[in-house]
Amino acid sequence: MTSVLVLNGPNLNLLGTRQPEIYGATTLPEVEQLCRDHGTAQGIEVICAQSNHEGALVDAIHAAKGAHDGIVLNAGAYTHTSIALHDAILGTELPVVELHLSNIHAREAFRHHSYIAPVAIGMICGFGVSGYTLALDALIGHLGART
Ligand code: DQA
Questions:
Q1: Which CATH superfamily is domain 3-146 in?
Q2: Marked catalytic residue, from 38, 68, 86, 100
Q3: CB 96: neighbour CB atoms within 10 A?
Q4: How far is it, in rounded angstroms, from Cα 33 to Cα 36?
Q5: Best mutation site among 72, 98, 102, 110 for ligand 1, i.e. most ligand atoms within 8 A of its Cβ?
Q6: Ligand 1 pocket check: which of 15, 74, 127, 132 to mutate, most ligand atoms within 8 Å of Cβ?
Q7: Burial class, 116, CB count within 10 angstroms (exposed 0-12 / middle 13-18 / buried 19+)
Q8: Residue 86: active-site member
């Protein structure tokens, strides 16, 4: 069965209470359940993980090789700073869909650059929590895994 890792980065554990006017009122456990339910409906396995630590995210991307067929990645603020995450994605050669709840291009200039974008198959941003299911659908389509 096709398996996808949904990987969330720093501060996304605070979803639901962190700047709800930007990120919405849905909590991370609710987002993760939504992703798993969507996976079940689409006939794939969805495994969710979150870390506030850059190295742990690098480790999770490395560990995804062989265990998952692709990754939906919301790298949070590391999107804008992390060459290590960029290199980890290159190193695994797994297809990655970059995801952001907010439209990073409509926000502060420091959020406009992404180190993930050049190594992702595509990016979804600005659609809030529904971005997660959009990203899963994009990855499922890319993998040809729709059942
Ligand atoms: C975010 C956007 C990032 O700029 C920010 O640092 C986040 C969340 C988003 O989902 O909109 O932590 O990735």
A1: Dehydroquinase, class II (3.40.50.9100)
A2: 100
A3: 29
A4: 5
A5: 102
A6: 74
A7: buried
A8: no
Burial zone of 147 (CB within 10 Å; 0-12 exposed, 13-18 middle, 19+ buried): exposed
Whether 22 contacts 103, CB under 8 Å:
no
Q: How many CA atoms lie within 13 A of 107 on its CB side?
A: 15
Nearest residue by C-alpha to atom 12 in ligand 1: 76
The residue extents of the domains of the chain are: 3-146
pLDDT band at 61 (very low <50, low <70, confident <90, very high): very high
Mean pLDDT of 111-122: 98
